[in-house]
Amino acid sequence: MSSSRxxxxxxxxxxxxxxxxxxxxDVTLADLxxxxxxxxxxxxxxxxxxxxxxxxxxxxxxxxxxLVIVGVHSPKFAHEADPDALAAAVERYEVHHPVLDDPELVxxxxxxxxxWPTLVVVDPEGYVVAQMAGEGHASAIxxxxxxxxAEHDAKGTLxxxxxxxxxxxxxxxxxxFPAKAVALPSGNLLVADAGHHSLAELAPDGETLVRRIGSxxxxxxxxxxxAAPDEARFSEPNGLCRVPDELRPALxxxxxxxxxxxxxxxxVDLATGRVRTVAGTGEQFMVGGQENVVGSTDAFxxxxxxxxxxxxxxxxxxxxxxPRLGAFVVAMAGNHxxxxxxxxxxxxxxxxxxxxxxxxEGLEDGPGADAWFAxxxxxxxxxxxxxxxxxxxxxxxxxxxxxxxxxxDGTVAVSTAVGQGLFDFGHRDGAAGEALLQHPLGVASxxxxxxxxxxxxxxxxxxxxxxxxxxxxLATGLAEPSDVLVETSDDAVHLLVVxxxxxxxxxxxxxxxxxxxxxxxxxxxxxxxxxxxxxxxxRLDVPFVPAPGQKLDVRWGPSTELxxxxxxxxxxxxxxxDGTDLDRVLVLNPDVAEGVLHVTAKAxxxxxxxxxxxxxxxxxxxxxxxxxxxxxxxxxxVTPDGDATLSLPLRG
Length: 652
Prior knowledge:
The chain is mostly beta strands. It has five helices and 47 strands.
């Protein structure tokens, strides 16, 4: 048995509310005997989970005869527990394997999952052989799958052939899970048609298709000619921003697109439909990786500015122009940051730099370099007399509305208007300090300086009034609104809403007083089972196992990092902060009954270089570097009978 394997433990049965992508039949572990099985514990709000879906696509296709991936959907937000919302997400993200609906977290608990995403590998005889949390494990999983296929083929315990996946009936329509929209000078509307991997230009009625830009096939390809709008390929495009009038002639494109799954920014010439990539390499930025900058062996420098085409990006979700910065601000959902893209720099080829965020996930205000975000997903320029060139930001995973204020020196300051943290959400109006949202994805500014939030998982439009510091509800009953445009005329203001899950644009009239209603749909916290721990000393252990064929990379000193904090902070009497050891003694406050431990662990490994005939490492083999990272939010309950140790395995 490989040393990278866990001791043989019988896999628990797959229990939940029902199944998707199986043609209506339930699936048991006995049905999967003879196959290598990968259980993917995910929730559709989570950008890391979406990254894993994309990482597994090629592996799934290469091993379709021997491997079955089973998605175990374990919801974080209340909306994600809705079976119709889950069915829509499975279709939206093109999940091509069976999915178990586990709203009560029964199977999640049986496999002791503590983080989204968690991956569990089960061998053809029904035993768990590996478990890992986080993303970036595709190569490690493939190595384990190859080992298991060879081992069980030799034993005669491998079954080749079709698995239980049954594709759903295809759907059609002009739009398919539209994400964002922008008004064009012609009066038409340009829509990021994410489910069709293209852009749709619609007439002012919001329904009539004028033309489509992009082939409709998932991929990353620029236009080869000047009049070939159907040659380009996108992959789940989201944000759109018109280029300022004074820059368009020099740049040669009119709209900037956040091409999310391609990890790229694309420029579109509206006259011809021509598309070209203006930032990003098409590869995902990996936090702490050594390959994030093309042509450089140095680690990414957060204080540096780079050629835009040389840096990997990570799921850009929206873009907005900042006159004060002279750059587009990019909501980089994949690594919880904001970036600044200057399209004019570098002789017109553009430059890009990290603007705000530490790449840690959470809700922390202050100077941009110290701020924490969690899947920033919507941006809009502030309006009104006190706008100060500020931007409003929908920070999805913290269910927050945040304000980003640029300074003359190119830095920004970040503050939170609405939102309480990663694990608190709901639908509650009133004073901003007590108001709650649920995974908002879009934001727009009203003429009076107030803000409209597309409160996606509440199916609502919410209004924040900065002067009164209050939140009200403008509309409800919408199907996952992901963006909103403000349309003004002489006598009225309308809101054009991108109803993503209803595959349409919808106009909503603002109330005459613009104020909206005050509603209280209740508060929620993430309902994961709490781990019972004893007061006083708690030993935290994060055992790291490199992937097969890899070893810890200690060429430049310690290759591991551990960061610990708590909500509320008073939960930890000692042990908070950063360090390089993956084990630590924490001291829990006996007077705090429950809370959440926030743990971030990183470990760098490199490929093992084979030895040459002389017994020395082969000089013609250059080891690739790999970074394993995971953020855990572990709910704990402090009780005298609780555990004195907490183990959170980290896999390479």
